[in-house]
Amino acid sequence: MQDLRGLYYSELEELISSLGEPKFRAKQIYKWISSGVSSMDEMTNVPASLKAKLLDAGFGVYAPKVLSKLVSKDGTIKYLWELSDGNAVETVLMKYRTGNTVCISTQVGCRMGCRFCASTIGGLVRNLSPAEILSEVMMTEKDSGEKISKIVIMGIGEPLDNYDNVIKFLHLVNSPDGMNIGMRHITLSTCCIPDKLRRLMDENLQITLAISLHAAEDGLRTEIMPSNRACGLEVLLSLAREYYEKTGRRITFEYAMIAGVNDSIKHASLLADAALSCGAHLNLIPLNKVEESPFAPSSKKDMDAFTAVLTRRGANFTIRRSLGGDVNASCGQLRRNREKSRKTNNSSERI
Ligand code: SAH
To answer: How far apart, in Å, are the Cα atoms of 171 and each of 34, 105, 176, 203, 234?
Structure first.
């Protein structure tokens, strides 16, 4: 089934015309899908005959189901959604003073292999469709009753590894007839896939780009982020500079602080060089402990020494406030727990 939510308005109009129906039906249906309906049954002013035609043509509406919903003491809500094929992805709603931000997934699993990340442990299962990505935002808004004003693409998956679907999602969510979320309120985070990043630059979107750096020397970055083999820091930094020059939009480098791995004074100095060379803002992330991973978060003392170097060097940084720690809010952990318990259940079935 193809989800109607994944169609541009013009595509929906074409579909409706091709089914021999008047154009105003497209408007009615678009209004319903934009309001976050869970199925075509809810579209009360659309005739049953048209719904039947759409189903025959392979179209419908599918809303992901809430598998679990965890509400943190700080108001953060973490959803685990079940998709139409039984796979699961996570979405996190964070409440900031500046507005509600939703952190969304773009793939089921991930094949980038970052060694500190829970999302990549089982590899990539599949890409999410534009409709599925959009549904995360819509259904979070509908279920929580909270208006969403910002999106960060920092959940499960590598967005540039699902390029076309992510670009279509960006246009859909930005559509004035749809959720109308401004491109300037959207941040895309990537480990950096050079050819895809170049394509993104040429799209001329006003989104904010965040690059997951985590190490400012090639040997270490390749060790903890195998995707660095195909990119390399020299290319990454020149792309970052080019992005800034072309779009005028300051880039963010994300840097998860890992004890004894990337948090020494020397690392801080290399990071300052990297940031200053392309006018990037630094976002330091206290590492979230992942059970299967040997890495631990840096100590407060090491972080203080690290940030003192950044300050002395004039590099611009913020430390990411950790929200939802009590509900496993770091990406991939809820899905990972579900996968583990499914495996345990399966194996006990086999016994
Ligand atoms: N694939 C994209 C988006 C995914 S995750 C990317 O690489 O940017 C969003 C951010 O969380 C990335 O910077 C990622 O490296 C970071 N991250 C992953 N696991 C983490 C962990 N255990 N602790 C802290 N940050 C983590």
So the answer is: 14, 17, 10, 11, 31
Structure tokens at 266: 């020397």
Q: Which amino acid is at 100?
A: N
Nearest to 93 by CA among 324, 322, 283, 254: 324
Residue 209 β-bridge partners: 188
Q: For 212-242, what is each residue's pLDDT tens digit? A: 999 999 999 999 999 999 999 999 999 999 9
**In angstroms, what is the span from residue 154 Cα to ligand 1's centroid?**
7
Closest-CA residue, ligand 1 atom 7, reads 191
How far apart are alpha carbons 78 and 81 in whole angstroms?
A: 10
Express each pLDDT in 267-306 by its tens digit.
Answer: 999 999 999 999 999 999 999 988 888 999 999 999 999 9
The count of other CB atoms within 10 Å of the CB of residue 351 is: 4
- Whether 331 sits among the annotated catalytic residues: the reply is yes
Chain CA centroid to CA 112, Å: 14
Going by the DSSP 8-state scheme, the letter that residue 66 receives in this structure is: E
Give the separation between CA 11 and CA 3, rounded to whole angstroms: 12
> Per-residue pLDDT averaged across 125-134, rounded?
98
Tally the C-alpha atoms within 13 A of residue 90's C-alpha that lie toward its C-beta. Answer: 29
User: Between β-strands 88-96 and 99-103, what pairing exists: parallel, antiparallel or unpaired?
Assistant: antiparallel
How crowded is the C-beta side of 215, counted as CA atoms within 13 Å? 21
For residue 335, the CA-to-ligand 1 centroid distance in Å is 15
Name the pairing type of β-strands 124-127 and 107-109: antiparallel
Q: List strand residue ranges (DSSP E) for 208-275, in order.
A: 208-212, 252-257
For residue 128, count other CB atoms closer than 10 A to its CB: 26
- Degrees (nearest 5) of the Cα angle 168, 203, 154? 60
Find tokens 């330091």 and name the residue: 284
Distance CA 45, CA 247 (A): 44
User: How far is the centre of ligand 1, averaged over its atoms, from the C-alpha of 141 (Å)?
Assistant: 24
Structure tokens at 157: 């998956």
CA-nearest of 264, 275, 284 to 314 is 275
The answer to whether residue 90 is catalytic is yes
